[in-house]
Amino acid sequence: MFMMKTLGRADTNNIRFNKPDISSNHARITNLENGNFLVEDLDSTNGTFVNGYRIKKATISLNDEVRLSESTIINLTEVFGLSKQKSEPQKINPKDFTNEFNLLKQVWDSYQKERISITKKHQSKSTFIRAAITLAPLVIWEILQFSFDEHSKAGGIVKSNYIVFSVMGSTIAMLSTGNMSPVEKLSQLDEEFRVKYVCPNPTCRTQLGNVPWLSYSNQGKCFRCGAKYNKV
């Protein structure tokens, strides 16, 4: 079972902060036990931030910075009683972030694959349901044809309303699949990507947008802070 911690000003929270800018029930963090954590804002007044960007919900790692409101930094290692990570050797060049930047390749690749997966699943599901709903009235029409003599009054009505059944099926199909948009899933994916795909320099954290990882690798550095992205 995943360990979860609530954070806020109220006494009922696991981690309590006696600060006026922290909401009574500010945020919830869940240790997913695979090196990742789920951070959720609980409709706080002043927000929950990951790498300097306000979020509603985001999956992060120990390499990411979590902040409540303006200045309350959350130490995930201490909150969950984890073993302290070995401190990295001091950089010879303080601007060298090549190792940290290389980790962003997985962030970019995973994001692209997940977007494609969500879109394909939605398209397949929508196509199947639309086809099923469209064909259902036609199947009923065929059954009714066998149920009534085509020379009878009822049979004539059924036969003459073939087009009505077809249009009805298509209309129902469109209405039924109209609310199946993957917008919410893609929106959540985009939010998590934006807060993780940032300059690895902790003093910068500029969002790298939708520019491919390889483009930044070829660029070689962050134009804002000068952090080095490769050894070249």
From TrEMBL:
It holds the Pfam family FHA. Residues 5-55 form the FHA domain. InterPro entries: FHA_dom, SMAD_FHA_dom_sf. SUPFAM superfamilies: SMAD/FHA domain. This is FHA domain-containing protein.
